[in-house]
Design a protein that fits this description.
By secondary structure, the chain is mainly beta. Helix content is 12%, strand content 53%. The longest helix is centred in the N-terminal third of the chain and has 11 residues, at 3-13. The relative contact order is 0.19. The mean pLDDT is 88.
Length: 182
């Protein structure tokens, strides 16, 4: 090739959009949280885990999450009551089944900017399909993802904890705030 042809190719290639390969993003453990909320006839409480292990494959060109995986240790939740936390680990067989996990390879963007994420939640060695609506926003070089799962303990073979002969509600929720550095 002559110099003019090489120069022409270089100029034309500068107009061709470059694509970036999807990349793996890890959640910032210092900022990400998962909170469970439960209700007993005598009181309500929450427990928070700041030990959230989450990763996603993110397509920078499309600004699209392709898949996601999250794992949280059952024993990492803190309700500000050590006795209750120990009892929850016992009720959930946390020594035998130490993690709650969520995986998805089905992430769809919605017209309103949210995501519909269809995945599998494994809790106490029982895996169930779940769908969660996730709000996603970019702030600088961070991708923030928030959502909530409403679940039933009995769906996962968990006996409802009780106090003074009164059991908690079967329903509980998991709220998450995951922050990924891009």
């Amino acid at each position: 090739m002559n110099r003019l042809s090489i120069l022409l190719l270089l100029v034309l290639s500068s107009f061709v959009p470059r694509t970036l390969a999807p990349k793996k993003l890890m959640a910032d453990k210092a900022k990400s949280t998962v909170i469970y909320s439960m209700v007993h006839p005598l009181h309500k409480w929450t427990g928070i885990s700041r030990d959230v292990n989450a990763a996603m494959i993110y397509d920078e060109d499309a600004k699209q999450v392709q898949n996601v995986a999250v794992a949280i240790r059952v024993a990492s939740f803190d309700s500000k009551n050590q006795s209750r936390d120990s009892h929850m680990v016992e009720v959930l067989d946390g020594l035998k089944y130490p993690n709650v996990t969520f995986t998805s390879q089905d992430v769809k963007p919605n017209a309103d900017g949210t995501l519909t994420v269809n995945g599998k939640l494994t809790f106490r060695n029982v895996t169930k399909p779940v769908t969660v609506q996730v709000t996603q926003r970019e702030v600088g070089k961070q991708l923030l993802m928030n959502g909530k799962l409403d679940l039933k303990m009995t769906d996962y073979g968990v006996e409802r904890p009780s106090l003074l002969g009164l059991a908690t509600r079967d329903e509980f929720s998991l709220d998450f705030a995951l922050i990924f550095n891009k």
